[in-house]
Write a structure and sequence with these properties.
Layout: E1 16-20, E2 23-27, E3 33-37, E4 43-54, H1 61-71, E5 79-81, E6 88-96, E7 103-105, E8 107-110, E9 113-116, E10 119-128, E11 131-133, E12 137-140, E13 143-146, E14 155-168, E15 176-179, E16 182-192
Antiparallel strand pairs: 1-4, 2-3, 4-16, 5-14, 6-14, 7-13, 8-9, 10-11, 10-14, 12-13, 14-16, 15-16
């Protein structure tokens, strides 16, 4: 099972989120360009700021975050990061059945763009043509699999909480003590990875 990045109360409002694509550009002598998109989905970068991390017996966010970082061995092990402002899909269209496919990648849609999610946190409620399904499917990672293929033309939708599959961007993480039993982390850098 993939580890889940801890939700800690000291997370500040100063956070950044950056999608990045990879495009090959060849420019002719005339100045005309030929462009080729290398990725169909972006790599996301997150920079989180922790205004406070307590280091007390009653509340120890410092040890939670530091322990998680050490368990992941820095940038080595991927985990699921649920963006506090971007992690819920409701009535999300997943696919249209073709009568033979039984596995479908869970996606999210925003601003007209459709992107596979990194993983699911919690349960998934699945609907086929608007009818809630109580059995006959399973979810592993970001893949929804039916025990038998949905009918041709069947619209598959779902409600779920999703997360980004990420790793720590760096093999170092810096904490600063600013008061008795209080620490801060000015930059915790995460980057999404492909499954």
């Amino acid at each position: 099972m993939t580890a889940i990045y801890p939700a800690l109360p000291g997370l500040g409002y100063s956070a950044t989120k950056k999608p990045t694509f990879s495009t090959k550009i060849a420019t002719a002598a005339s100045g005309r360009e030929t462009r080729m998109a290398m990725w169909s989905a972006p790599i996301w970068e997150f920079t989180l700021t922790y205004d406070f991390l307590r280091d007390t017996a009653a509340a120890n966010e410092l040890k939670q975050l530091l322990g998680f970082y050490l368990q992941m061995q820095g940038a080595f092990t991927p985990f699921l990061f649920q963006d506090p402002d971007d992690g819920q899909a409701t009535a999300q269209t997943i696919a249209v059945g073709d009568g033979s496919s039984s596995s479908f990648t869970l996606v999210r849609t925003f601003g007209g763009y459709v992107e596979p999610v990194g993983g699911v946190i919690g349960g998934v409620t699945v609907y086929v043509n608007g009818t809630r399904q109580t059995s006959g499917y399973s979810v592993a990672g970001n893949v929804l699999t039916f025990s038998s293929p949905p009918a041709n033309g069947a619209v598959l939708t779902a409600d779920f909480q999703y997360a980004f599959l990420c790793r720590f961007k760096d093999d170092g993480l810096e904490f600063e003590k600013f008061a008795a039993q209080l620490w801060q982390a000015k930059q915790v850098n995460l980057i999404s990875v492909r499954a």
